[in-house]
Amino acid sequence: MTETKTTHVAAGILIRPDGQFLLGSRPEGKPYAGWWEFPGGKLEAGETPLQALVRELHEEMGVTVSMAQPWLVQTFTYPHAHVRLNFFKVTDWQGEPHPHEGQAFAWQVPGALTVDPVLPANTPILRGLQLPAVLPFSNVAELGEAAWLRQLDLALAQGLRWLVLREPQLPAAAYAGLAAEVQARLQPYGARLLVHGQPQRAHDLGAAGVHLPARVLMETTERPEGWCGASVHNATELARAAELGLDYAVLGAIQPTQSHPGSATLGWDGFAALAGQGWPFPVYGIGGLKQADLAAAQAAGAQGVALLRAAWQGLS
């Protein structure tokens, strides 16, 4: 049996301060000419992915990369090649992109593409770009339902657009009632609700998707519909999330937490070692964190931070 050769590619997601990102069309003469993708190209002998990215973006569009963060790694098999794509978020560069190879460029809003078709290997990346930097988890258990709902209304008015409703202490009927109430409050804002642990309940509610605790993740054999993420603690659980094709993972605990005193923690070094193994989805840090930890999380390779208590503090 002939072993399939893997082509290693570096791709850059140029992101403006307003969140728009750049797609480029493939020029004539290349496979999939006219299809849209993130700019980049093949690694040359001896190059690291970052070195290839810097070179390719300068050659393709005349920009000089100043800041690029490794983000996701995606493998994909096309009829003509098996590729391993190393995606970088490029948040600072010099020069204005100009097509040097006959391609076209288009700035896009996450979740609202105006160009088509897009190469299929980019689909998880496009979904990942819709995810927030801060992913809040509910905290009814400590605040009480009425007080937490008031905080939720404040957070929605201040821009919250994603929520994981995690209340394992509630009986099924009480959780269902709360979820329906929360869904009604989120809908006017176009905010997305992720139900905790039960894909069928998410479907019945018309929620955006489901967030799986690690135990349920390891028992799941088929990816649930809609958006789907999971809580993970180690490489085995991360690998299971990758096998299922999930949209994100929440990895921790980073620091000691009130809810799990004395439990082992990863720290940012441990997080970086696990998150940096080339997963095809964004990874959040969780555990004893605040929004002020966002920069440290992203420096360690995270999408951002997942917050429980800290998500509902300081709202007014």
TrEMBL record:
EC main group: hydrolase
InterPro entries hit by this protein: Aldolase_TIM, MutT-like, Nudix_hydrolase, NUDIX_hydrolase-like_dom_sf, NUDIX_hydrolase_CS, NUDIX_hydrolase_dom, ThiamineP_synth_sf, ThiamineP_synth_TenI
EC number(s) recorded for this UniProt protein: 3.6.1.55
Limits of the Nudix hydrolase domain: 6-133
Pfam family, one: NUDIX
Cofactors required: Mg(2+)
CDD domains (UniProt xref): NUDIX_MutT_NudA_like, TMP_TenI
Keyword Transport assigned: no
Protein keywords: DNA damage, DNA repair, DNA replication, Hydrolase, Magnesium, Metal-binding, Mutator protein
Domain of life: Bacteria
MF-aspect GO terms: hydrolase activity
Catalysis: reaction(s): 8-oxo-dGTP + H2O = 8-oxo-dGMP + diphosphate + H(+); 8-oxo-GTP + H2O = 8-oxo-GMP + diphosphate + H(+)
Assigned protein family: Belongs to the Nudix hydrolase family.
Protein name per UniProt: 8-oxo-dGTP diphosphatase
